[in-house]
Each structure stands twice: as structure tokens, then as C-alpha cells.
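Cross-posted from the bioinformatics board.
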Amino acid sequence: MSPLVKIRSERDQMSAVERRIADFLLDNAQLLRDYSSQQLANALGISQSSVVKFSQKLGFKGYPDLKFSIGEAVARADNGDDAQLAAHGTQHASDALADQLWRRKSEAEQATRLLNPADTVAGVANAIRAASHGKVFLIGFGEDDIHARGFAMKLALLGIPTVHNFDAARMAANVATVARDDVLMVFSEHGRHPALCKIGRWFREQHGRLVSITRHTPNPLRALADITLVVSAHDEAAELEPLLYQSALQHLLDGVYLLLCEDPERRDCLHANLERIQTMLEP
Amino acid sequence: MSPLVKIRSERDQMSAVERRIADFLLDNAQLLRDYSSQQLANALGISQSSVVKFSQKLGFKGYPDLKFSIGEAVARADNGDDAQLAAHGTQHASDALADQLWRRKSEAEQATRLLNPADTVAGVANAIRAASHGKVFLIGFGEDDIHARGFAMKLALLGIPTVHNFDAARMAANVATVARDDVLMVFSEHGRHPALCKIGRWFREQHGRLVSITRHTPNPLRALADITLVVSAHDEAAELEPLLYQSALQHLLDGVYLLLCEDPERRDCLHANLERIQTMLEP
DNA sequence: TACGGAGTCAATAATTTATGCTCTTTACTT
DNA sequence: AAGTAAAGAGCATAAATTATTGACTCCGTA
């Protein structure tokens, strides 16, 4: 996997110094050839050891290994860009916006996939399976509610009983009914909403399983959860970032959904439901 | 010039030791990553200084520079394809699932883009701009409601007054308040819902602008609309198709959204709103 | 045979990278 | 609110890698 994608994906979780290194690398990947770890440190006004530790933390053997990998990535990217530019030639100008956006979505998706091991995604699916004798609770505010709502609808189609809340007070009331192995999925981009944290804490006290869905930044909600799904989506443009977040998160959820669909029984249920919906529109 | 080509071209004029280095590099370029100059020397039974001198003689700053260049060359030669295949090998099954799904989404997006000329997308954005003295109405049922809701929220962030309905009766009541140039966006995957068609018809009678968002199939709703956005998303698997539909549609809407964002005034409004939301969570 | 040039290597100098340790900050607990 | 654990950053230094030097050898030639 491209080291640059990896750096970007972890950027949100980094300390200040690390983030400066990351930004420098992302901006100046082509120039890295002529930088020793010491020179890079000087350029950023930090210590050489920080650079080395940064490299190791990302999983490279050391600084030269990082440098080598980025060199490869840049070389590959240069090739790719040429090909992409050729394709551009045949496009209308205003399509470029959509094209660009899709590319950024793809990057966000890749970075997000890196952050969520297959085990984790499967873990969420299993938790939901285990819960299906009980219930799956979902909650989120604002844009997060959209995801909660959409996922709740999908689960319902699979015959999994869901309780979707967009209201903290109502959810608080529901907590009383929580049984062991019930699952609560909390959607909160920044994971800082006090009400959601409180609900999460109560829920865990009832021995329910808590799944958090947040940005890949350290945050209190995430710290509480049994399983955490995290999303990487970064862009300087404030109007773009939410789109990337939404897309990457959606894809993550789609992954869980497809795992659930692998169960034949649920799939039958889905087909039956779809048919029922179909006939509801016809007559 | 590629360092490997250069090495090959000069090989014939080299001394015995140099030629052994050259041959090793040409044969094992991909393995070079893990060789220091000393290890390379050991592998060939020669001295480390010979390796360094070799590098310099070829015009590189030193051994690390040679190594870096060969790394680039190999990456370029692999051209991504091999790398992707290699990466596949190490993937878990569920990663492959996610990977596959993303590829299908990309296809759906492309197909959908082809169906919606840039003019059309821009037309929707303009209609919304024109409406912003009045109102933008949005409606959709079931999964379609998710999109209506999400888009309504985005418009609201841009300071565009929206009326979101998930209830045909309430929407019917609202139709009375429609003014010329108001916009109604109807989300309906199959475009067959009688209630929605009826609402669309009433709306047009009030001289509002009707935008339909449906699948790319002939359908009554689409026939009514002033502007039609259409989505292409096909898959044999019934559990996959909705995901593709959702993704392609979302991207289409994102395109409209970004066009609206280009207006500086709206963008300021968005930034102000985002900040306001941010501070609401902090204290 | 003596000389010169090219090539190699061992030794070592110079540079670069990695690590241990300490100090500071942060966040969490009681 | 104070204490404490954990993490991060930098300094000093150890370890490694790389570059250079100088001596030796092997040829070909005068």
C-alpha cells in the first residue's frame, strides 16, 4: 500500500511534530531524494530522532526504508498521472470536478480500509449477528443520523430488529431495556458529543456491546467502545471533507452489510422484503 | 535515463568485478531494497568500497543514490499492476469484498456520469440557485428519503431554505404554498410511486420547477420533470444493487452540491455554519 | 626490468541512522 | 485538585552505513 496514503490516513491521529513531518512528506514527496533524516529535521526545526521514530512508527524499518518507499510511490504516481492526464483530454471541463471528487473519495476509501482491519469489520458483523435475538440500537446526530438511519433501514431489510433513535432523551429511556449482547452503534464524526458518550457509558453498564463510528482521531467515544470503526477523510476544502467522510463511512458500512448478507437466511429475508416493497408500488 | 538501462549499456566496458555488480543489479533489482552496500559486497564476495566506487562511476552521488534510483525504476516498470496483484495476495477475504465493491461503485459512477451531461447537473444547481429566494422542497420514501434528507441538510448548511418531507400528505399540503421558481426534488428509485407522481403534477401546476432523481428507466415521474437526474447501477446480486445505486446517486448529488459551493457567498455561509456546529460541541 | 595506469581491497574517516535516557506535557484516576 | 501513568520530544551517544585513502597487484609497454 502506498506509504503516502498510509501517512495521510494516520495523519489525524498524530502529534503536532509528527503531523508536521507528515505534511512535509505529503507536500514534498518528490524532493525527498535529497533529504537525510537530519536535513529533514532541520528543515522542520525538530530533532532527527523524531524523524526516525516517525518512520518506525509507520511500520518502516527506519528512515531510509521510508524514503525508499516514498520514492517508489512517487515514481508510480508519476506514471499514473500521465495516464490520467491522457484520459482527461477527452473530458469536458465541468466533468473534471466530479472526476477529481471521485478520485479523492477513492483515496479516502483506501486510507479508511487500511485503518479498519478485516477482523474489525467482521467483528462488527458478528456482534450484529449475535444481537439479532435481541436488538441493534443506532444513534447519531445531524449528518451522522443520516448514516444511522440508512444502516438501520438496511438491517431491517435483513430481518434484524433495530431501534433507531435521533433523540438522546428517547435513547436514554431505551437504555433501560438493554439486554446482554444487544448492540449499540453510535455514529459521531468527532466522537465528542457528551450526550452520546453518556449513553455509551450507560449502555456498557448494561453489558451491551458498543460500536463506535468516528473519525480517526483520538476521542472519548472511541475510547469507550468495544469495537471501533474509524474513518479517514482529509481535505483542505471545508466543503469537500464531509463528502469524503460520508463516502468512506458509507463504504465501510457497506462492507459490514455485505458480510451480513452472506448468511443465506438473511439473504432470503432480504429478497422477500424487496419483493414485498416492489408489489407495494405496482397496483 | 533509467539507471538499469544505463548499467546495461555500460556493462560491456566494465571490469570483471564491476560486471558482477552490474549483473547482480540487473537480475535482482527488486531485491535491492534490503541490501546495504556491505551486504551486496558480501553477496558477491567483493569489497564494499568497490560497490561505492561502482555507484559513483555511473554518476550517482553514492550507493544510496543508486539504490534510490533503481527503486524508482522498478516501481515505474511495475506500473502499478504488479503491485496491485501482489497486494491482492496478502488481502483477507473481506478486504477483497470491499475492493470488489469499490470497483463496482466506480463503474456505476462512470456510467451515471455519462448519462447526466454536465449541462444537466449545472441546470439543477441553477434551478436551486434561482429558487433560493423561495424554497427547495425535497421528498422521497424509504431509502430515497435518506438521500432527500441528506441533501436537504447540505442545502441548509449553504443557507438555502429547504422543506424536507417524508410524508406525502404533508407534502400535499405544502404544495399550496408553492411559488414560481420554487424547486421540488423528488427522489424515487423506480419513479413509479403514484403519490409522488401526483405531487409532482400539482407542483408543476403551480409553476414550480420539478427535478426528478430516478433510475435510468422510463418511468412516469421522470416524464413529468423539468430536469431529470438518472442513475445507472446494475448488478445481478440483489444485495449489491442498492449499494451501487446509493453510491452513484450520492456522487451525482455531490456534484450538484459542489457547484453550489462555488458561490463565495454560500461558501461563507457554510463555513460559518460549520464553525457554529463545532462550537456547539466544545463547551 | 622499470614504469604507469587501472583496479581491488583493507583500514579508517565521515556521515547517517538508531537508541537509551531524561524532561516535559497530557490525560486519567482517585 | 493532586498524584500518577503514558506518551512525546529532544539530547547525547551508540551503531550502522557509506565514502575515502593509501597500499598492493596485475598488465601492458618502453
